[in-house]
């Protein structure tokens, strides 16, 4: 599929009316990194670190993690890599972690909740990331942040780790950016101060959509019932974009929907300027973005919303057929 889009591989994604959209890729294993070159992605917008933890039978040592992250950064050749700390617990049980029995794992003791309450693993990860960067810029993202204080506590862990590394005489990254995933509706309504504090935000649409519609992402029976282009969800996305604009907080979207061309152009119409997706989606998404007039699409979506439709998909499809 990538061959079909080879001619636009190195072309920046710019819409007909001149809006520049940054396209990044999602990854989770070192083996994914060669796609950075092949897909033309501008960086790794989401590196899911738990995949490397799941792929082994015992707890990795810090040295293992340093080596892994170093290889990832080396393979990215200076392009940005957004390392997401462990998004684990409940359903994604590590063989070497004591399982917890929870009635609703997706809403249970997972991700940053584990990281803050049992900080050993998170601290080891942070230290490994700092050492792997070895002077290079470093981007860290915390998953499943539901309230501002969770981000503050996590950032304090980063600061403490940096201080410790400094005392130990290690070379520190030239720049560290610390951000959060917006995957629970609550975070979208955090005080504006929170938006000023984060270095960036990334919408985890898979989880955000599941909690927005109360529809289990793992449950076939309900998950396709709610269209991503439902006006309620698009309004919500637009609201997040606006809040980020007030504080000039960089915002991206890294859930699976970013890799679906029709959804992707609609997110861009809502004001998103960075999308992160599986590498194979970059070509198709870019190709469609280059054909659309974003301001026109935005007006069409807006008109449909005023008419009171449930989803804007039909009008968007009409527009796309017309171009
Ligand atoms: C998401 O929730 O959209 C996301 C990118 O994270 P994950 O799919 O790993 O939960
Ligand atoms: Mg998620």
Automatic annotation (TrEMBL):
Which residues does UniProt assign to the signal peptide?
none
Q: Which residues form a coiled coil?
A: none
Q: Where does the protein end up?
A: Cytoplasm
The entry's family comment says:
Belongs to the PEP-utilizing enzyme family.
Q: What is the name of the protein in this document? A: phosphoenolpyruvate--protein phosphotransferase
Q: Which organism is it from?
A: Tritonibacter litoralis
